[in-house]
Design brief:
This protein is mainly α. 74% of the residues lie in helices and 0% in strands. It has a domain of 35 residues. It contains four helices and no strands. The longest helix is centred in the middle third of the chain and has 17 residues.
Length: 65
């Protein structure tokens, strides 16, 4: 098994876990939330998508549907 902490920091892991908890297994939802997470990170001038970016994306995605 690969040690996840070697590949990603905790903020990135939290973002990935959050994405997989809210995507409902639907590829379109994964794409929408991932895209919104990238936009959120960009507007916050972050170099990575972290938990706060993913949380904002999930909030935005769920309120618009």
């Amino acid at each position: 098994m690969i040690d996840e902490s070697y590949l990603l920091d905790h903020g990135e892991l939290d973002a990935i876990r959050m994405l997989t908890n809210y995507d409902r297994g639907l590829p379109r939802w994964v794409n929408n939330i991932a895209w919104q997470s990238l936009i959120a990170a960009f507007t916050q001038e972050k170099g990575i998508v972290d938990e706060s970016s993913a949380r904002l994306a999930i909030t935005e995605t769920h309120t618009s549907e």
